[in-house]
Amino acid sequence: MISIEPVIYVLIFVAVLALVQGAYLVIFGKSISMDGKVNRRLEMLDKGGNREQVLDQLRKEMTQHMKSQSIPIYSLLANKAQKANIAFTPVQIIMVMVAVSVAAFLMLTVFTAVAPPVRILVSLLMGVGGVYVWINRKATQRMNLIAEQLPDAVELMVRSLRVGHPFSSAINIVAKEVPDPLGTEMGIIADETAYGRDMGETLKAMAERLDNQDLRFLAVAVTIQQSSGGNLAEILDGLAKVIRARFRLFRRVNAITAEAKWSGKLLSGFPILALIGINVVRPDYFDEVMQSPLFIPACFVVATFLVLNLIVMRALTDIKV
Known about the structure:
The chain is mainly α. Among the domains are: 98 residues, Receptor-associated Protein; 77 residues. The chain contains 13 helices and no strands. It is elongated.
């Protein structure tokens, strides 16, 4: 008899991810997506929002996650949630975890016959793991988009400076012309400097918050120019070329190391896929082995080696550019 329970687990986990994304879109609408023609800050202003109110809301969203690291479990997500700029508050994210865990438990109850303690454990793992996977994906997408947009944004600043605009006006132009996520980030910088914050300090804070080396270069270039003078347009033009060169090199490194990364994932994932396949074709295949007292310790040893394989392969292919 063929067992389809492993397939059901996978489908329920996919459903959990879809539930999280669906809830996010329903609550916050299209404004939180990063593929719009108008960035989120401008859209909020166009809807009648006061400039100061919009700045306060965006700054609250930017910093709320790192301020909540003391919350149990949430500390694992705080850094990723900040980089992804998740509009959910920390409390709302925890509520989403609970809600999708309950939904996963109900689906496991309906479609499987496992014991209640196992259903509770699996549903909690799916709830927390599903939210983490979703936030991690959002953070990766956002950081990649910022890295891709930055050279064009710096070149736009250079053109603005060369036609006579001050640097604050160049930042404003970038905030209006560049889509999200960088457009809104630059808009926040423009608003903060308009209310009196130092430009170099603001850029440095953004670079540290996003943990982006190219933004650190930009902050250092602006800070040095403010203190010692010089042709900022020429400095930023050289910086744009450096950022583009680093971006091309980063893509080449990714292409070269892609085989090793996927090899590590395949080597760690294949035993699990084989286990699921065997369990589907022969549900009773491991019944005799499971009676052995060494079965559970052996499972932990295998799981440890699989995780170590991922960590080692990730470390070997984590080349800094």
